[in-house]
Design brief:
Layout: E1 3-4, E2 17-29, E3 33-39, E4 44-50, H1 56-63, E5 70-79, E6 91-102, H2 116-121, H3 123-126, H4 130-152, E7 156-157, E8 163-164, E9 176-179, E10 182-186, H5 191-201, E11 203-211, E12 224-233, H6 237-258, H7 260-265, H8 270-274, E13 281-284, H9 285-298, H10 302-307, H11 318-325, E14 332-335, E15 348-349, E16 352-356, E17 358-363, E18 368-376, H12 380-390, H13 398-405, E19 411-417, H14 418-426
Parallel strand pairs: 1-2, 4-6, 7-11, 13-14
Antiparallel strand pairs: 2-3, 2-5, 3-4, 5-6, 8-10, 9-10, 11-12, 12-19, 14-17, 15-16, 17-18, 18-19
Helix pairs in contact: 4-6, 4-14
This protein binds one RNA strand through strand 2, strand 3, strand 4, helix 2 and strand 12.
RNA sequence: UCCACAGUAGCUCAACGGCAGAGCAACCGGCUGUUAACCGGUGGGUUCCAGGUUCGAAUCCUGGCUGUGGAGCCA
């Protein structure tokens, strides 16, 4: 009796009769000869139906198959270098029998080109396409690699709430919802809760969606994104940078190791990933501003010159991030940003309170900021004063202030945007392809 | 929120003041090695919406809607 197999394992079954259950990815009809590409989620295999070798009814059924029809095929696995569309390539199945579950109706996503809006409207179907399949498989490995690395180093995953009573950072970017007649907000970060958890468990992280109601319409923004946020007691900014570079180098290495096939499907330049090794460069904000001024001075294009204008004290825009990152072949840390442009809980630099112990990591190739973090203020009086300065509702932060009353310690943490990191690793043109169902300014369907 | 561009067949686009078209998809037929197969045939339109200019508007004008790219802001 033939065995049901996963296409990904097909190499183990050459010469054997097997059963594959899945969907028609593509089909070519040559008259007495048909090529049917069948995918099962793990891969794609070309099934060959030759009329004289088959029961007439089976051949007839095969000739009526449409794109995405569901079916169960039985046949003999063969090696054939002409099976270029198979994933893994080079294997095909000589069709013997066929059970059609459904002949699918006219499928919207044809093998021809489509526009972004159309594909996003059909995202629930687009996921079946080879390129999207490859990207989301890499996403799963990336997420797994990041959490594995932290787990292996004693970081405890402690989940933080998504429904929260107050802002994590600033009030302007919150999704407000009705909570039995009171206001609640979707979490924009798990960070404040991480600080409480860190005091209980030492080294913690949270990995969950974060929500930003920002009216941003760029290739790097999502309203809902997956946020990995480690936080550790007694960790310094310098130790955190080492952690980040090792974490990312490991994750990129895992992707390279497991996904040669997928990276080839998305045509990623592997040399760009192979160079991602610790250590990454570290430059101060002061240095970064000087570098940007120098880059701007050397630029002939007046438009670019204007975009690159910068004064000490301003935050970087994406043209700045891109220009800085272009100077390096791997991500680059920028540390000690002005306190005024960073969150209220960031620790001032000793003797230089106008800058803080913060660090952002900028990805190469113009992919921008993929992590942001800092040492947190641990002095009770200072954090108290900061909460007053920014004028947020003090009662909502009573529990947070408690953390500084009962055994406060120096600590640090950062947040990593999974989709931005994946967009960079995969070399994608837009973050919307890095998440199964992107939530964007103009899109919440499907 | 600002700037730029776009919206025509299921999809990708052409026609740019004078009969609304092509390729793909669908359907019918042909073909034994296809790789976005190929060849022949058939069907398919509220030209985003509302107003205006004109003998005549997909085309020009005004307003709106939707989307795309970029900026700001951020991971």
């Amino acid at each position: 009796m033939a065995q049901v197999i996963s296409i990904s394992q097909i190499a183990d079954y050459v010469g054997q009769e097997v059963i594959v259950r899945g969907w028609v990815y593509d089909r070519t009809d040559k008259g007495k000869l048909q090529f049917i590409q069948v995918r099962d989620g793990s891969g794609i295999v070309q099934c060959v139906a030759y009329k004289p070798d088959l029961d007439e009814a089976v051949f007839e059924q095969a000739s009526k198959l449409t794109q995405e029809s569901s079916l169960i095929v039985t046949g003999i696995v063969k090696v054939n270098e002409k099976a270029k569309k198979s994933v893994p390539a080079g294997f095909e199945i000589g069709l013997q029998n066929l059970e059609v579950i459904q002949v699918a109706g006219e499928y919207p996503i044809t093998p021809k080109e489509h526009g972004t809006e159309f594909l996003m409207d059909n995202r629930h179907l687009w996921l079946r396409s080879l390129r999207q399949w490859a990207i989301l498989r890499i996403r799963a490995t990336l997420a797994r690699a990041l959490t594995d690395w932290l787990d292996d180093r004693g970081y405890l995953r402690v989940d933080t709430p998504i429904l929260t009573p107050a802002a994590g950072e600033e009030t302007t970017t919150l999704f407000e919802i009705d909570y039995f007649g009171e206001s609640a907000y979707l979490a924009q970060t798990g960070q404040l809760y991480n600080e409480a958890n860190m005091m209980a468990f030492g080294k913690v992280y949270t990995f969950s969606p974060s929500f930003r109601a920002e009216k941003s319409k760029t290739r790097r923004h999502l309203m809902e994104f997956w946020h990995l946020e480690p936080e550790a007691a007694f960790m310094s900014l310098e130790e955190m940078m080492e952690l980040e570079e090792q974490l990312l180098a490991y994750a990129v290495g895992r992707v390279l190791e497991k996904h040669q096939y997928e990276l080839a499907i998305i045509e990623r330049d592997l040399s760009k990933l192979e160079s991602i090794k610790a250590p990454f460069a570290r430059i101060s904000y002061d240095d970064a501003v000087e570098r940007l001024k120098a880059i701007a001075a050397q630029t002939d294009d007046p438009e670019q010159k204007k975009l690159l204008e910068i004064e000490w004290g301003s935050d970087f825009g994406s043209p700045h991030e891109t220009a800085l990152a272009e100077q390096f072949d791997r991500p680059v840390f920028v540390y000690h940003y002005p306190s005024a442009i960073k969150a209220f809980y960031m620790q001032p630099v000793a003797g230089r309170p106008e800058v803080c112990r913060s660090v952002d990591l900028l990805a190469p190739e113009g992919y921008g900021e993929i992590t942001g973090g800092s040492e947190r203020i641990h002095d009770p009086a200072l954090i108290d004063a900061r909460i007053d300065t920014i004028g947020i509702a003090r009662e909502a932060y009573a529990w947070y202030l408690d953390l500084r009353k009962y055994g406060t310690v120096p600590h640090a943490g950062f947040g990593l945007g999974l989709e931005r990191t994946l967009t960079w690793i995969c070399g994608l043109p837009h973050v919307r392809e890095a998440i199964p169902y992107a939530r964007m300014l103009n899109r919440k369907y499907p």
